[in-house]
Amino acid sequence: MRFARQTISVQEAVDKWLAVLPTLATEQVNIGEAYGRILACDLHATHDLPHFDRSPLDGYAVKAADTVTASVGSPVALRVIETVAAGQVPAREVMAGCATRIMTGAMMPEGADAVIMFEQTQNPGEQSEQVWIKRALQPGDNVSRRGEEMAKGTVIAQAGERINAGTIAILATFGFSRVDVFRRPRVGLLSTGSELLGVDEPLVPGKIRNSNMAMLSALVAEAGGVPVCFSGMKDELAPAKNKISEYMQQVDVLISSGGVSVGDYDVIAHLADDPDVELLFNRVAMRPASPTTSMLVAGKPLLALSGNPGACFLGFELFGRTAIRQLAGEKGVKPPIIQARLAVPYEKPCPYPRYLRGKLMEQDSVLLAVPDFNDKAGNLGTLKDSECFIVIPAGGSGKAVGELVDVLAHAAPAWRKDG
Amino acid sequence: MRFARQTISVQEAVDKWLAVLPTLATEQVNIGEAYGRILACDLHATHDLPHFDRSPLDGYAVKAADTVTASVGSPVALRVIETVAAGQVPAREVMAGCATRIMTGAMMPEGADAVIMFEQTQNPGEQSEQVWIKRALQPGDNVSRRGEEMAKGTVIAQAGERINAGTIAILATFGFSRVDVFRRPRVGLLSTGSELLGVDEPLVPGKIRNSNMAMLSALVAEAGGVPVCFSGMKDELAPAKNKISEYMQQVDVLISSGGVSVGDYDVIAHLADDPDVELLFNRVAMRPASPTTSMLVAGKPLLALSGNPGACFLGFELFGRTAIRQLAGEKGVKPPIIQARLAVPYEKPCPYPRYLRGKLMEQDSVLLAVPDFNDKAGNLGTLKDSECFIVIPAGGSGKAVGELVDVLAHAAPAWRKDG
Which intervals hold domain MoaB/Mog (chains A, B) (predicted)? Predict the structure, then answer.
């Protein structure tokens, strides 16, 4: 199995992988904990919005009919009968010749059908018993009508949507202090490799510190998962198999790094031969990260990423982030591909689609993809500066300046002006 | 002060506001808690990367000179003297006519200067005592040299940078298990308004539920701050002043919503008259959110946003998010403005620059700004779908389809293909 691998396209691999992932159970959380979670049911407006006619500004509620002759040169005098602050219920009906002093957000008094702002009146003092209106109004002017924004029963948010700050605002408005969301995916993380040292261990010849575990842990949390870090695994097959089975019972998906290549001690590659394992793929048509592997181990999904940090990062963005989003209940999950113009030539033929790390810039509304020229799969130094992967298709002789290229944008591109 | 306001531009207001904000103290956190924080000092590579010559693939370490005549038709036989796994230190020097079986990431043995991959050999079995090389190599082929990626002492990350998953990877590699970051800003949140009900309170006539507090709390956390929610404040000036002073001592910045307009009970507007207060601005040339106000109260920064949810949201994106980023130590903070083509006409003259909520799409590499036509300042229903604010400049008669417009992108635009 290690050598005789069947190569499939990135698209096929993503589809195959997402198809085996379940959607997790739901739970109820407080609105204060709902940010970033995925809604588990449709929600409807529990009342009209606004739920009473109200004034959108500070001024006087009047009968428009009283103002038909009003102008700056010939203002109309009205008697002020009441002041209504936001939150109060008006006590008096506005009759002909009268006005109610009204604050932003306050309830319209009976009888009034328009509001004039302070700035268009004369003598708008707080204690004034009379006010002069300097403009003619139409019925409805400056009144926010009950239900104007939304009628009771309107769908305000749908199952499968990610809850953002705007969603929180609408949930609060309609009194949803608790909300049904999908459970957060528990994502097991495992590094394989006898060469790996802990971050706080001193360096020794031949060994390196484990950077993938810390990186994946950050990426999993960023994507909305709960990282569960398991202790590292030496390159020994039998104990590794047992550990993996044990770990998988504790999580919704296990993501490993390392051990996917054709080396003698590549435990993940060997694992695929196990009768309990259904291999989904173990070679993807892309560079780097082509040995990215996925399988079901006793029915549970395992994503095995390359040990190489850059390849591990790419594999996570394509398969890990999408998996977490899908497990968490998000609808229509796929890698976020957009198009941009290549800012500099890339003139190498590629046997496989090449995913170059780079930056995404905007110039006069056009997106420019700027590859990182230090892009070796393992180059750790520029990983933090990467905003996207630029896809150079297989075959041909690369891409010229200005050609359209597909770009896999990371979760949060840092927008920057050129220069 | 309530009526006689001086209008300043958004740019001036942002500059004035950011200029009064301090940078917070630093603290040390574990690498596992460092994601999203801002680095407080430059960090340097603690060793060469890689710190030993290593093989980037699975194969045989050889002397290139031994392979000069090798070809598929006439492979060269070498004697296998050792197997080196990743993490091991080779025990034997590779002499002429010999090869060491070597795994990805393993240390190069003395004497070898090139690596040939398994796939270019014959008889590469694990127990083979002899292997046939089918390709001629140059010295250095398939060897990752010590220091090739980075020399010891190289700056790996700089003060003022936000730590992302890539930064975490490089920190782990160089053994930074703890890292100096700026303290997270404590952001006090306060809603003013006698009309406000809690999210779990039943609706009564004239009152509405407080949606800004929950929304701002989510936005503050998203921006990297620690939201500190204070209990709501009635529209009464004397107690409000005392409360605000008390609250401000507990936080790095206080953000309020409501009470900034010209109404009789607008406590924030009245507060600006206090002798202890240095007003920075109380009218910004934009719609909505023009009454957005900022001041120093006993030297501490207060940002007063409109009570209107849409205006509150815009005010936060311009002044609140930038403030949190700056307090948290980020360098060169400014609102993230990019340019896009207007996707539909907006043919109204604007006395002030108009910030329309909308979506940012990409079509053949060009960014399209699609305004939300339900965009009333207070429209809560579409707040969650907003990806950006589209800026229609003041004067003129709006903008035609295809014209360039400035766009204030939110923190994380959701990229979507058109159609």
Answer: 188-326
Architecture of domain A27-49+148-182: Alpha-Beta Complex (3.90)
Is the CB of A48 inside 8 Å of chain B's CB atoms?
Answer: no
pLDDT exceeding 90 applies to what percent of chain A?
78
Asked whether B265 and B235 are in contact (CB, 8 A), the reply is yes
Taking the domain B59-133, which CATH number applies?
2.170.190.11
CA distance B70 to B74: 6
Q: Which contiguous run of DSSP H or E holds residue A29?
A: strand A26-30
Average pLDDT of chain A is: 92
**Distance, CA of A258 to CA of A247 (rounded, Å):** 16
Give the residue-averaged pLDDT of A66-82: 97
Query: Which CATH superfamily does the domain covering B337-409 fall into?
Result: MoeA, C-terminal, domain IV (2.40.340.10)
Select the residue from B170, B229, B237 to test the A interface by mutation, using most A Cβ atoms within 10 A.
B170
Domain parsing of chain B, residue ranges: 10-25+183-327, 27-49+148-182, 59-133, 337-409
Options 3.40.50.620, 1.10.10.10, 1.10.150.910, 3.40.980.10; CATH for B10-25+183-327 is 3.40.980.10
The CA R_g of chain A, rounded to the nearest whole Å, is 31
Range 339-398 of A in CB contact (< 8 A) with B: 339-341, 362, 364-367, 376, 378-386
Distance (Å, whole) CA A112 – CA A96 = 9
Do A27-49+148-182 and A59-133 share a fold? no
Name the nearest CA neighbour of B235 among B191, B298, B296, B187. Answer: B191
Contact flag A169-B56 (C-beta cutoff 8 Å): no
Q: How confident is the model at residue B22 (pLDDT cuts 50, 70, 90)?
A: very high
Convert B292-319 into a string of H (helix), E (strand) and C (coil): CEEEEECCEEEEEECCCHHHHHHHHHHH
Say whether A381 and B149 touch across the interface (CB within 8 A). yes
**What residue spans of B288-393 are helical by DSSP H?**
309-315, 321-327
Residues from chain B contacting residue A262 (CB–CB below 8 Å): 58, 118
Q: Is A383 helix (H, G, I), strand (E, B) or coil?
A: helix
A10-22+189-327 to CATH, choices 3.40.5.10, 3.40.50.2300, 3.40.980.10, 3.20.20.70: 3.40.980.10
pLDDT over 70 (residue A161): yes
- With contacts defined as CB-CB under 8 Å, which chain A residues touch B211? 168-170, 172-173
Contact A123, A105 (CB under 8 A): no
